[in-house]
Write a structure and sequence with these properties.
The structure holds two protein chains of two kinds. Chain A is an all-alpha fold. Among the domains of chain A are: about 60 residues, no CATH class; about 150 residues, Orthogonal Bundle (MetI-like fold). Chain A is about 70% helix and about 0% strand. Chain A contains 15 helices and one strand, in the order αααααααααααααβαα. In chain A, helix 8 crosses helix 11. The longest helix of chain A has about 30 residues. Chain A is globular. By secondary structure, chain B is an alpha/beta fold. Helix content of chain B is about 40%, strand content about 25%. In chain B, the strands form two sheets. A six-stranded mixed β-sheet of chain B has the order 6-7-8-3-9-10, with helices on both faces. Chain B has a four-stranded antiparallel β-sheet with strand order 2-1-4-5, with helices on one face. In chain B, helix 5 packs across helix 6. Chain B starts with a helix and ends with a helix. Classes of the chains: A mainly alpha, B alpha/beta. Chains A and B meet through helix 12 and helix 13 of A and helix 3, strand 6 and helix 4 of B.
Amino acid sequence: MTMAEGDLAVAELAFVRRTNIAPRPPPAAMTGAVGWLRENLLSTPFNVGLTIVIVLLLAWAVPELVKFLLIDAVWSGTDRDACLESVQHREIGACWPFVWERLPYFIYGSYPIPQRWRVDVFLAMLAIGVVWLLWLNAPRRDLGAIYFFVILPIASFILLTGWAAIGLQPVDTVLWGGVLVTIVVASVGIVVSLPIGILLALGRRSHMPAVRTLSVIFIEFVRGVPLVTVLFMAGVMLPLFVPEQLSPDKLVRALIGIAIFASAYMAEVVRAGLQAIPKGQYEGAMAVGLRYWQMMRLIILPQALKVTIPNIVNTYIGLFKDTTLVFIVGIFDLLRTIEVARIDPKWATPVTSTTGYAVAAIFYLVFCYGMSRYARAMEARLAKSDRR
Amino acid sequence: MSVAGNHGPLLKPAKLNTATAVEIADMNKWYGDFHVLRDINLKVMGGERIVICGPSGSGKSTMIRCINRLEEHQSGRIFVDGVELTADLKKIDEVRREVGMVFQHFNLFPHLTVMDNCTLALIWVRKMPKKQAEEVALHYLERVKIPEQANKYPGQLSGGQQQRVAIARALCMNPKIMLFDEPTSALDPEMVKEVLDTMVELAHDGMTMLVVTHEMGFARQVASRIVFMDEGQIVEANVPEEFFAHPQHERTKLFLSQILR
């Protein structure tokens, strides 16, 4: 019926459709698992090749990993003998008792053992803050923001460094280490870099020459110097020029260095987002009478930040991993504590280092992949309002 | 509309008054070396509907954009509702509160719902409570005949609907003067009429309007004066009957012969 009509349309000069063509389901090859395979894995010869290479790579890597981490792994023991092939007379994989024994060190560093509950409380408070802020349907997110940006930093500072007046024994930051330091450095970098980065980006696009020049100089200078140099300057050079009592704490210096560095990168990321916003949005905002900061806060930044979420998170992930560089100024982050622990003679075996590094890899992977997934979910959610 | 009575001066239609709404005197503007607007003189009385036409690049849009200072002029003076536009930010804010603008590309805020687009300036510029602002917004959305779209995002509407939202957004601020910068040029042909109808209604309500458009039918129907511009100058201005029937300047005649068939 429909075919006949289609033929007519071609064959004759004048054509009037008399029946509506009803929509039909797509062919079976387009749907279901087969359709998915064809579409995603086998759509072109190049794709087929890629699929084969990837399958081979996985077949090569995954069994080895599983074998090392789980099947051949040692699960109990008290010292190196448990993980030595010559003692156990079997193939030895990951040495988990080593990790288990040194886990407190990996988490707290040399933080005094009786005081470690304070770190636990800090991590719990941080977790609450993060969830409150990132869970978009959470109740009272305005309170959550106050908690996260005002209460949490002050409380954490008091809790972790101590305040004799309220009975919290002071703990020198030299003793901090492991996950605690990694989290503190990353959180400060992440939380500080976005607002400062936004201000620098706006400054760089400002019509006021002084503001613009200062922003450009700051951004270009900091971006032009390696992070290691910034940390080294902050950690080693600064104390040479500043009198002892005026020089801030070593960890604080590193935090400032990281924050400055991350802010400069964030500024460029945000600027890219600002440039993606059409001029009409500025004009629309100005025409209804919004002032500069209102326009930026209500109209421009929400849109600019939305398009830059992937880049912001990318910067955050980079920053999170860059925190490992603080070891250069003698701060014991997670990777550094693992480095120290793996050469401990008590656990010296051929697999100790690999096991330690596996722990580090899993830790960083979990956090970075988490950030990545959250960003994807955010994008998907925000994209809803953008249907055009 | 019950809303209209409750909120005092804010919602009353702009009064048809005889005072000068906009006065542009010897205004000049340059983009770098390029002299875009040359000795512009234009006086618009309250309640007048001015249609500005002319070939592209003639400076029509630039001229009306000077009236709410989206563009800066370099010499001459512009008074809007008695306030002179200078670099003074307070004066600029004052003028922008009284002047609504509708753009060719709508310039709605895509991340906000239609309702939020309309209430934003009421809440942040007029400092109106949210609930009251929403009543006002709904009133104007009804007036442009799309109250049912209030909770959608601009991207979900057709071009004509978006432009009507843009008109409602501007009207919410209860402006004394409305500027239209080619409001139908970016629309599909089938949507031009709904936007023009809205503008005609607005004209009947006595709004002072400056409209840059190529819609000559609209100009004939509602304009109290038509201003023809070319090369940054006002070439001819007249009431529509005379303008169409007896254009005086050669360039006007040429322009009309090209757009009227």
